[in-house]
Specification:
Layout lengths: L3 E6 L6 H14 L5 E3 L2 E3 L3 E3 L5 E3 H10 L10 E5 L4 E6 L2 E7 H7 L4 H12 L5 E4 L17 H7 L3 E6 L5 H11 L2 H4 L2 E9 L7 H11 L3 E6 L24 E6 L4 E2 L5 H5 L3 E6 L10 E4 L1 E2 L2 H11 L1 H10 L4 E4 L1 H6 L2 E4 L11 E2 L6 E18 L8 E14 L5 E3 L4 E2 L1 E3 L2 E4 L9 H14 L11 H19 L2 H9 L3
Parallel strand pairs: 1-9, 1-10, 2-9, 3-6, 10-11, 11-12, 13-15, 13-16, 16-18, 18-26, 19-21
Antiparallel strand pairs: 4-5, 6-7, 7-8, 14-17, 19-20, 21-22, 21-23, 23-24, 25-26
Helix pairs in contact: 1-2, 1-14, 6-8
Length: 492
């Protein structure tokens, strides 16, 4: 039988995703063939696989850590929130529909065959499977029909490592309280406790660790230190997306939309020594950036209305009129156009066209079909003109434009639109290959009169690989890996 191990957390943000990535990389380093699995992910950060299917980016990172291609089977259910009470439901990489939370809670039990088929298919090709839970298994109001925490652990007969986040405080209460709220048969599945994001001398924890083991009857496998890594956040509520002052010569402001999606598109910019990226959700904090980016969103029309209500729409138009470079990506591109018509009601609007910001000669009509495709191309105009790029499209809208294209794709199609200092594109991952980052830094430095020094065209994949090795080394040193392997082998 394929070996498996599951990471669950005391809460969202405890560090489950990165610990799963670390275990995937450690098992790969040790000569195994691991694969990640998360039955249900709720995120607006998604990715298109080589076969044109959609999956959560957390499992993409874990697949990269495991040294294998991302596969939609690794995340058979993806929920993309489109309001506070409803989500788009994606099953096996394809849209199944939109559902209110109550409807989905009743419906999700019917997805167990899809989950098991995906898991068993992966288990036939990989060994071990590193499974990630979601939120906390102690959310007792959601225990009925659970398919992502202890319910999934039972289906896969997986041992569980429980992770607590010490950074906000109360980690002993987190871990003890979570174990205490589990059913007896669920407690027996918990084979180890892990403290995550620890800063300081681990010896100061020792007395508490002993008491925690005595109270729970579960061994503590280690305390993973706080790590400063250049790895993408999964959650748009992450601290890195809060408003902060740019500490670098070039100031790039990204509008933090309520339903912002694929914000990881801009992580490569913040990694450049000359480019500072900050996220803005109020006109008074926007200031006078050297460039403004309008990112993707799951609810384009609703977020466009939010821009108008907050006053950010007027601020964006004013900055564009002053000559500030403006880039819209996916939903941001659609907002920059003249009109948006939501015929299918999928983007927070209706069939009557809504006025866009009018900065691009483009019109968008939304329909029920979603475009999911990987692409390569060359940028034709704007601050990254001439750069070779690769990325992917995930969108439901079809946009027609009267202006020159932003990019020519290798398949012959043209993408996006340019009008003076305003550009729009459907390409997520535009900056991942590195060349576009360098071109952007060169152009913005020239415009601002800042000395430009070529920092090299770092390939995002190569840098990611280095960061995953650092993560794996730190986790290997922090945890009792002999105990982890005993748990994996079923001998603990």
């Amino acid at each position: 039988m394929t070996k498996r191990i599951m990471i669950q957390g005391t809460m969202s943000g405890a560090g489950k995703s990165l610990l799963c990535a670390a275990l995937c990389r450690i098992f790969k380093q040790d000569g195994l063939r691991p694969a990640p699995f998360k039955s249900q992910n709720m995120a607006l950060n998604s990715f298109v696989t080589g076969d044109g299917l959609e999956m959560g980016r957390a499992q993409v990172l874990q697949a990269q850590a495991a040294g294998t291609e991302p596969d939609a089977r690794m995340n058979p259910i993806l929920l993309k929130p489109c309001s506070d009470t409803g989500s788009q439901v994606i099953v096996n990489g394809r849209v199944r529909g939109q559902m209110p939370a109550k409807e989905y809670f009743r419906y999700k039990q019917t997805l167990i065959p899809d989950i098991l088929a995906a898991y068993e298919s992966l288990a036939a090709e990989y060994d071990p499977i590193v499974i990630e839970g979601a939120g906390s298994p102690a959310e007792i109001n959601l225990r009925e029909n659970d398919i992502v925490n202890m319910g999934l652990a039972e289906l896969a007969d997986a041992p569980v490592l429980l992770v607590g986040d010490i950074d906000p405080g109360g980690v002993f209460a987190q871990l003890y309280g979570t174990v205490a709220l589990l059913r007896p048969e669920e407690r027996r599945r918990v084979k180890g406790l892990i403290i995550n994001k620890f800063r300081g001398d681990v010896e100061l924890l020792r007395p508490g660790l002993g008491m925690l083991e005595e109270l729970t009857g579960v061994p503590v496998l280690g305390a993973v230190p706080w790590l400063r890594l250049d790895l993408d956040e999964e959650d748009s509520m992450a601290p890195s997306l809060r408003q902060r002052a740019a500490q670098k010569p070039i100031d790039i402001a990204v509008i933090r939309l309520p339903r912002i999606s694929n914000f990881t598109d801009f992580s490569p910019l913040d990694s450049h020594p000359l480019l500072g990226v900050r996220y803005v959700d109020r006109p008074e904090t926007l200031g006078a950036p050297d460039m403004l980016i309008l990112p993707g969103t799951k609810s384009t029309v609703s977020d466009l209305l939010w821009l108008r209500m907050t006053g950010l729409a007027d601020a964006i138009v004013s900055l564009a009129a002053s000559g500030t470079p403006v880039l819209g990506v996916c939903g941001g591109y659609q907002m920059l156009g003249r009109t948006l018509a939501d015929l299918a009601g999928t983007e927070g609007g209706g069939p009557e066209p809504v006025k866009g910001l009018g900065l691009l000669p483009a019109d968008t009509v939304f329909g029920p079909e979603k475009t999911r495709v990987r692409v390569h191309g060359t940028v034709l105009a704007g601050p990254v003109a001439g750069a070779k790029v690769e990325g992917y499209e995930i969108h439901t809208g079809r946009t027609t434009s009267d202006g020159p294209a932003f990019c020519r794709l290798d398949d012959g199609r043209e993408d996006g639109c340019v009008c003076d200092n305003v550009c729009g594109t459907y390409l997520h991952g535009l900056f991942d290959a590195g060349q576009a980052v360098q071109e952007l830094a060169r152009t913005l430095c020239q415009c601002k009169g800042v000395a430009y020094e070529d920092a090299g065209c770092d390939d995002r994949a190569e840098k990611l690989d280095e960061q995953l090795d650092i993560l794996a080394d730190a986790v290997r040193r922090a945890l009792d890996m002999e105990a982890v392997y005993r748990i994996l082998e079923g001998t603990a």
